[in-house]
Amino acid sequence: MTRLTFAEAARRALAEEMRRDPLVWALGEDLVQGGIFGQYKGLAEEFGAERIVSTPISESTIMGAGLGAALCGTRPVVEMRIADFTLCAMDELVSQIAKVRYMFGGQGRAALVVRMPQGMWRNSAAQHSQCLEAWLTHIPGLVVAAPGTPADAAALLKAAIRSDDPVVLLEPKNLWTAEGEVPEEVVPAPFGVARQAARGDALTVVTWSAMVPVVEQAARESGVACDVFDLRSLWPWDEAAVIASARRTGRLLVVHEAVTVSGFGAEIVARVTESVGPLRAVERLGAPRAPVPFSPPLEEAIRITPARVIDAIRRLAGSGG
């Protein structure tokens, strides 16, 4: 194992995939310069300007070019810089990339990765801090992955590059500098298989992406024995593991950075209760339905912190008999 930052783990994984397969290449703004978070640093020097491509500032063009290149047989990694900017390319993603394999009976495929760094980061305010995950899981044809550790940043990126389906990779901006243990040889992670980070009988806690270290810390410090699941991918997601745990514990807490209203946590709660029936306690912990403020104190007021998760864990573990 090697201790790496989230950004470095992802950078190494991309470099390994580009060495393995000459059809893999990347395009987006400022990639030759290393990317906004350094996740492409040094790759232009190794692979050249034909495989690490800095594009004009036009998200629809970047996304559309990625689709065209995928249809021609290459495996593009489409860098959106920040997830919010993908809104300028939603037609290409939702109406074209997600649908092309179905619309043409499998004769064409969009085997590409769309990297969307999302969530809060350094007081980036309302137009640079959104979590669009629930919208994306709603779109048939897309695989949606959301790594929460450096190891999974590498393993899920590798899996996404090798997938024959289009994969949206939601990378948490607030974790780019976070460090963790990464295997010397990273194996692609299967989509739809959660990582169980902790075990216990009192409560089932489900999370992903930027909330993974927050929830893991809270579970350790709460004094409550919880099952903690890092989903790793949101579509497909590991329904079987979560449902089995909730059936055993009878209590469910879902924690996500995104707005609670219509968030993916609602889908999890619905599927669990449809399968298990009424639970003794259920709660979703997420952001209020408000734009993310620029002001640091106001941003902190809506942030999901370990203290808030600890309160929720203790409240649910002690409820319902």
UniProtKB/TrEMBL annotation:
Q: Which InterPro entries match?
A: THDP-binding, Transketo_C/PFOR_II, Transketolase-like_Pyr-bd, Transketolase_C
Alphabetized, the UniProt keywords read: Oxidoreductase, Thiamine pyrophosphate
Q: Per the entry, which co-factors are needed?
A: thiamine diphosphate
Database matches in Pfam families: Transket_pyr, Transketolase_C
Q: Which residues cross the membrane?
A: none
**Transketolase-like pyrimidine-binding domain ranges (all copies):** 4-177
User: PANTHER family of this UniProt entry?
Assistant: PYRUVATE DEHYDROGENASE E1 COMPONENT BETA SUBUNIT, PYRUVATE DEHYDROGENASE E1 COMPONENT SUBUNIT BETA
Protein's name according to its UniProt entry: Alpha-ketoacid dehydrogenase subunit beta
Tell me the organism's taxonomic lineage: Bacteria, Pseudomonadati, Pseudomonadota, Alphaproteobacteria, Acetobacterales
